[in-house]
Amino acid sequence: MIMRGFVLLLLSLFAVAPPVQAHELDPGYVEIQPFAGGSWSVYWRRPDVQGKPMDLTLHLPDGCTPNEQPNPRDDGNGWSASWIVNCADGLIGGVINVAGLERQRTEVLVRIVDQDALVQTKVLTRDETSFAVAAQPTMLSVLGNYFKLGFEHILEGYDHLLFVFALMLLIANRWRLVGAITAFTVAHSITLGLSSLNFISVAGPPVEAVIALSIIFLAVEILRSIGAKDTKNGRNPWVICFLFGLLHGLGFAGALRDIGLPQQDIFGALLAFNVGVEAGQLVFVFASLIGFYILAQVGRLLGTFGQRFVWPVKVMSGYAIGVVATVWFVERVSGF
Asked: What mean pLDDT is predicted for residues 195-210?
């Protein structure tokens, strides 16, 4: 337990890092969809870097005019611009490129909707800064892209990761922990699917606020468990994890709605995104467990000296989780 607290404190510091660092790692976003008269509407958002748009330049396929892009505006999430283009040769086969991406640590999500409402998505990275628009993406490319989107979304979702980490800190019994994480996974898979397929609809901001509240709940449980052999929620953790998992699934669905699902492969894309989320979560859990094991060995070397700090570090860990989650909760409520 002592070493878990140190790892959590590091996560807490990372979670409250200055906004500039967070913006620099935010992804860029390009959306192209049909407009009147055979023209196309383009939306281009770049991350913020110290009050200025990141040095990225969007290049559309040859033959698309106008070439000049309007000055971006700060929309609170980055620097965005919208304009209309005419592409004499269409988009199919044309190359979309983001110049300067090779020098950045971020990524750019490109989403293209054609006249038949078919959706193509592509994640551009520093190693792959361009791609050719396909007439119809293959099933394999759709699955690969949405798996990658889900995998990266969970690893960038610090609130979801902090919830899972708090579970690992709270539940010492490995089988109860497995049951709790399984219940959490099953639950958020259910609401992710139902919400993405428009069977249920819940406003995003309240969901994000209550997700922060769920982390505060776990922080309280961590503090309550100090000195106690067990707690009611500690004995049946899967129940509360299932309920909160339903809530977190709505948060995942909000991100997926922003990306959009390709109508031609909607179920495959949804499954791939969900599998990507689970894969990212497993990577985080295994990495944390390895870190716990290594640091626990170091703790044993400290002997009695190290054991003296178990109680205060657990207290610090509970409060650290609670403080970070409370800051998130206040920020999200104030943003309603």
From this structure: 82
